[in-house]
Design goal:
Layout (H helix, E strand, L loop, with lengths): L3 E4 L12 H8 L4 E2 L16 H6 L1 H4 L5 H7 L4 H8 L5 H7 L5 H6 L8 H10 L7 E8 L4 H4 L5 H6 L4 E3 L3 H5 L5 E4 L9 H10 L3 E6 L20 H16 L3 E6 L3 H10 L1 E5 L4 H12 L3 E3 L14
Parallel strand pairs: 1-7, 3-6, 3-8, 6-7, 8-9
Antiparallel strand pairs: 1-2, 4-5
Helix pairs in contact: 8-15, 14-15
Length: 311
């Protein structure tokens, strides 16, 4: 069995990195610890939702939407998207050479933007090119509420398809709670068999399992919405996936609780191959990774979105 390692969280929030090149170079040489020593999935960016704020008109009008992200994450990819690629901005005019429907713009609701995958690829392309981790693939896992609040055990979720959904009350929605659509968020392990075969055909030798949650398990009310949970089940899910990849013969490492923007850069620009998950964040990362030339794979049963939501 290959040795497993864990990337320590917190790199993105440390001082001393003058630019993204320094940060991304450092991420390849992180001090690592054994997986059984810690599993902190909280990413330190409470309720930061890159996929939703770039892809959903509805979400941008919620309490945790546009204004929340501009106020709390002014230097983020989400803020760059909102400030740079909206209707009337030079980047918008350069891409569309046109304008949104006049009535829609006047209403203020449509908030037209350059398609998000194109916009984020454009933005990241302006940054220094980071070194590619050779023979390395990343496996993204959707963790947090869809795992920890599920009535099913990890054994159940990893052996057969199990659905999950939630509904928020009006009071919870006013505080930023979002209903979760009914779908299979945790893919059974046998759906990764084809992924393993592709890894071998591509000469992949190292697999990095990437997972994080924007809600701290120490907070008893997620998003102030009255939903309590811990990350114990999510951590077990991560361990089981790492064990599966290790037993398949790959050197397995973990990148857990990383800042979402830095995880996004890692998934789209650092690895040769990305395996997505049933999440908006991973779907967006897959679209951008393809634009940078990476191979994007999905577990059997789910597909990578082929559209760029315009917002």
């Amino acid at each position: 069995m290959q040795r497993e390692r864990l990337y320590c969280r917190g790199l993105a929030g440390r001082a001393g990195y003058k630019n993204h090149r320094d940060l991304m170079m450092a991420s390849a040489t992180l001090t690592t610890v054994k997986m059984n020593q810690t599993c902190n999935l909280y990413d330190g960016a409470r309720n930061y939702r890159l996929g939703d704020v770039t892809g959903s008109r509805f979400f941008r009008h919620t309490a945790g939407g546009l204004h929340y992200h501009l106020k709390n994450f002014p230097g983020s990819l989400a803020a760059a998207f909102l400030n740079t690629y909206g209707h009337g901005k030079p980047a918008y005019r350069a891409y569309y050479n046109a304008s949104c429907n006049a009535a829609c713009v006047k209403s203020g609701y449509c908030q037209c933007y350059v398609p998000r995958a194109h916009a984020l690829h454009d933005f990241l392309s302006r940054e220094p090119t980071p070194p590619l981790l050779e023979a390395t693939a990343a496996v993204h896992l959707r963790v947090g509420d869809v795992v920890d609040q599920s009535p099913y055990s990890i054994d159940d979720m990893l052996t057969r398809p199990t659905h999950f959904k939630t509904r928020c009350t009006r009071a919870q929605e006013s505080r930023g709670c979002l209903s979760i659509h009914d779908r299979v968020y945790v893919q059974p392990l046998d759906r990764y068999a084809s992924v393993v075969e592709r890894f071998r055909a591509m000469g992949i030798r190292r697999v990095v399992v990437v997972a994080a949650s924007s809600v701290d398990q120490a907070i008893t009310t997620a998003s102030a919405a009255g939903i309590a949970f811990s990350h114990a089940k999510s951590c077990e899910y991560v361990r089981r996936m790492g064990r599966y990849m290790s037993e398949a013969g790959f050197a397995t490492e973990y990148r857990l609780g990383g800042r979402p923007d830095d995880d996004f850069r890692f998934l789209t620009r650092r690895v040769r191959c990305l395996v997505g998950s049933a999440s908006g964040f991973a779907g967006l990362a897959g679209q951008v990774a393809q634009k940078f030339g990476a191979t994007v794979l999905m577990p059997d049963g789910i597909t990578l979105p082929t559209f760029d939501l315009t917002g």
